[in-house]
Write a sequence for this structure.
């Protein structure tokens, strides 16, 4: 599993689009999480969808698009249509945190990773259960270990030395944590070591909030 993270865009949609495209196409992340609920990533994804299919990219319009584009199309045009639709489906990898007051949660190498906009909403249950706490609200990229846990922020899009990051499961065990700049270069990295980091802790998710 390779997970990409993007800091807040602060209304710079072109920069957000470039960063998302780099993580998807060059880093080849399996999923991308935008650390804000300002709707910016949704706007970027919709714009990409319209450009890909030259029509309303919604799922409900798939058959309408096929009928319009393929009824009298050549085999090459049909192949192009199918390729564009497959690329459109790949946009499902783009996600945002649900709300600035809620959390998104992922499991990486058996470790709990919690994603929020503002780390100030994290409570004791979040911190006790998680190995990795990732937040968007920060003026600069931050990677800080406290005991067996790591606090991570890529910083906002365009921040010197940051703006995005990558979390990747290591085949030998553990999670590689990277902060990257807007060109994709790694500016900071660390590895949360192999083996269960928090044995015996169980976690459930309810209404976007974690609890032990």
């Amino acid at each position: 599993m390779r997970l990409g993270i993007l800091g807040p865009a602060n209304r710079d949609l072109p920069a957000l689009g470039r960063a998302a495209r780099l993580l998807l196409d060059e880093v080849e992340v399996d999923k991308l999480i935008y650390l804000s609920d300002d709707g910016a990533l949704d706007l970027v994804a919709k714009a990409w969808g319209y450009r890909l299919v030259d029509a309303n990219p919604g799922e409900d319009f798939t058959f309408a698009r096929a009928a319009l584009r393929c009824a009298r199309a050549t085999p090459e045009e049909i192949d192009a249509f199918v390729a564009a639709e497959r690329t459109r489906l790949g946009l499902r990898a783009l996600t945002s945190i649900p709300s600035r007051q809620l959390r998104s949660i992922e499991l990486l190498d058996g470790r709990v990773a919690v994603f929020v906009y503002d780390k100030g909403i994290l409570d004791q249950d979040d911190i006790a259960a998680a190995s990795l706490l990732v937040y968007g609200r920060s003026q600069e990229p931050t990677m800080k270990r406290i005991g067996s846990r790591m606090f991570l922020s890529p910083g906002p899009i365009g921040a010197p030395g940051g703006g995005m990051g990558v979390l990747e499961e290591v085949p030998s065990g553990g999670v590689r944590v990277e902060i990257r700049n807007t060109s994709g270069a790694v500016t900071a990295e660390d590895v949360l070591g192999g083996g269960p980091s928090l044995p015996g802790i169980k976690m459930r998710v309810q209404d976007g909030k974690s609890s032990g």
Observations:
- Confidence is low (pLDDT under 50) at residues 195-212.
